[in-house]
Amino acid sequence: MDSVHKTLYIPLYGKAYVSRKSLFLSDKKAEEIWDAEGFSLKGRAKSKWLAYYMGIRAAVFDEWVRERLAADANAVVLHIGCGMDSRMWRVNATETAWYDVDFPQVIQERRRYYTESDCYKMIEGDARDAAWLQSIPKAKSAVVVMEGVSMYLTNDEMRALIKRLCAHFERVALLMDSYSVFAAKMSKYKNPVKDVGVESVYGIDDPTLFENDDFAYVRERAITPQKYINELSGVEKWIFKRLYAGRFSQKLYRLYEYEKA
């Protein structure tokens, strides 16, 4: 795998780590894959603090998907940049039309651990070229998950992807996390993705940047809600809150919700 593909091991490790500690979410598949792959992380990429952050971020995305499917049971789900994630099973959406999308090399690895069904499909595709959307039947509404993806796309690439999504579906609900411009600039000095070889990332400061006539910014959501931080205790809770939930962290990482209604 190249450096961008290898970033999938950082959230995989985080979910496996917190699952073993019975924090935030249960993800036996992440535990299984992490043990089998034996990928070696180093530096901040294997920090327990980052693992806690990855676990909470995944739980927040899970919560949002459950909310959206409760509101629209007929929506299809697109998880763009799925990596080795098992979200479909964590949110108990096995009867939902679900499409996990990632680079061909990632999907090839993924097929070693996951099996397609009538509802579940894995699609080889690059978020920067959404031609793969043509392999997905058109539907009235789609729930689109972009976790840990937007920072690898330029603004123009994001706009092009959104345009294709809006053309393909009558309604779109999208949740994505994002670096700020400051965080993207700082990443050249200190960022866990550098530990797997990634050099270029992108950020935004204005979430309305991707709006168009059909597609609008809805709101910012908390990326590290207090209820999850409260699952930690003592010094760990104190340190994590200041590392990943304090004012400085909020200048780096944000979570934005969008909708075409």
Short characterization:
The protein has 261 residues and is of the alpha/beta class.
Question: Would you write up a description of this structure?
Answer:
The chain is α/β, with parallel strands linked by helices. 38% of the residues lie in helices and 16% in strands. It contains eleven helices and seven strands. The protein has helices spanning 3-6, 9-20, 28-37, 48-71, 87-90, 104-110, 155-168, 181-186, 226-229, 234-244, 247-250; strands at residues 76-80, 98-102, 120-124, 141-146, 171-179, 216-220, 253-260. Mean pLDDT is 90; it is low at 191-198.
List its salient traits.
seven-stranded mixed sheet, 16% strand, 11 helices, single chain, 261 residues, alpha/beta
Mean pLDDT: 90
Q: How can the largest sheet be summarized?
A: 7 strands, mixed
Unreliable residue runs: 191-198
Query: Structural class, from helix and strand content?
Result: alpha/beta
- Which of globular, elongated, flat, extended, rod-shaped describes the shape? globular
The number of helical runs is 11
Q: How many strand elements?
A: 7
Q: What level of helicity do the residues show?
A: 25-40%
SSE series: HHHHEHEHEEHEHEHHHE
How widely separated are the two ends?
Answer: 38 Å
Strand content: 15-25%
Question: What is the alpha-carbon Rg in Å?
Answer: 17 Å
Tell me the layout of helices and strands:
Layout: H1 3-6, H2 9-20, H3 28-37, H4 48-71, E1 76-80, H5 87-90, E2 98-102, H6 104-110, E3 120-124, E4 141-146, H7 155-168, E5 171-179, H8 181-186, E6 216-220, H9 226-229, H10 234-244, H11 247-250, E7 253-260
Parallel strand pairs: 1-2, 1-4, 2-3, 4-5
Antiparallel strand pairs: 5-7, 6-7
Helix pairs in contact: 2-3, 2-4, 4-10
